Amino acid sequence: MAGDGRGAPLYQRIKAELRAAVARGEYEPGSPFVTQRELCERYGVSTTTAVKALNDLVAEGLLVRRQGRGTFVADQPERTAGVAPVRAVACIVHGLPGAHVSNVVSGVESVCAELGLRMYLTDTARPDVLASPEREAGALREAMDSGVTGIVLYPVEGLHNSALLSEAQRRGIPLVLVDRYRTDIPTDAVVVDNFAIGYQLTRHLIDAGHERIVTLWSETQVTSVQDRLTGHVQALREAGLPISPQFTALRPYLGQPAAARLGLLRTALESAEPPTAALCANGYVVAAAAKDLVALGRTVPGDVELAGMDDAGPFDLLGLTAVTAELPSREMGVTAMRLLAERAAGATDGPRHVTLPTGVHTRDAASGYLRAVVGGTA
């Protein structure tokens, strides 16, 4: 292989050879350029190496990317003298103080460091300000105006900012969603098997003897939650158990005033056939439910067993739950960033949804055991 220095990194030597090929006229201005896959096959290198070589040539203005078409040799006017676009990725999330979101960001950042990309991080929620479509819109506009290489987005609840997401796609800015996908706009997304979470945790509770399970939610207008509810209902059906609209209603619990939460639980617990278990959306809901149950004079797990549909929360609640799903948070960020890098390098196949498996932890496997009772937690 022709190179620009025997000790140079492999991607630098590939860049030098590709740059020389363009200079020799092997690729005409405006013509399609060698793809990431072809680079891997030609040089016997990894996807990461191929992506980095192509990204650098785009940053230098030798190549351009055109959405839905691939990577092309830049026309002469497009090659700006001495001015390269910012090689940066925007990572837009909400709820950064939580371990789940922080680990997603850590995964994104690790791949950015590997590829020599900067990461601009925006948390659309602060301790004193809830995440909102308006804050997300501002972050998206700032990212696009900054000329980022791509955007990793942990979207706010609901179908908001459709016009901005479509604009990013029109500009050729790769976009990968994490944790949930959009049903109105086809994009790449990295999610977990949320149907399996709802199904497996419900099966565990049923096998433990629970036939009446109330579901407690936080967000409701997101695909991750809707898929979990579908899995929960499927497990009830297979077990021949009744599906109570009161217990399976997709309504917010966390975020409600304390009086409203207590009223919801009191109504369920005072029904003719009260629930013996609560399937909670995440660790934050587990903590709120345990507190509210104790306020109503119930013990956990004596009167009501708790289960967590993921381990996102303020602290480790495994000892308080009968069963909890463990999210591969960092892997979600790593996978999302690698997919974004492939798009930035010219991958033009249709939108991909990557579904990662989850782990399930039971109380039997926990090192400690918590019991919530009136007067405190012991």
Automatic annotation (TrEMBL):
Keyword Hydrolase, does the record have it?
A: no
GO molecular-function term, one example from the UniProt record: DNA-binding transcription factor activity
What range(s) does the HTH gntR-type domain occupy? 8-76
What is the superkingdom listed in this entry's lineage?
A: Bacteria
What are the protein's UniProt keywords? DNA-binding, Transcription, Transcription regulation
Annotated CDD domains: PBP1_LacI_sugar_binding-like (cd06267), WHTH_GntR (cd07377)
InterPro entries, per this entry?
LacI/GalR-like_sensor (IPR046335), Peripla_BP_I (IPR028082), Tscrpt_reg_HTH_GntR (IPR000524), WH-like_DNA-bd_sf (IPR036388), WH_DNA-bd_sf (IPR036390)
Q: Note one Pfam family from the annotation.
A: Peripla_BP_3
Spell out the PROSITE patterns in the cross-references: HTH_GNTR (PS50949)
Q: Does the keyword Transcription apply?
A: yes
Which protein, by its recorded name, is this? LacI family transcriptional regulator
Gene for this chain: lacI_6
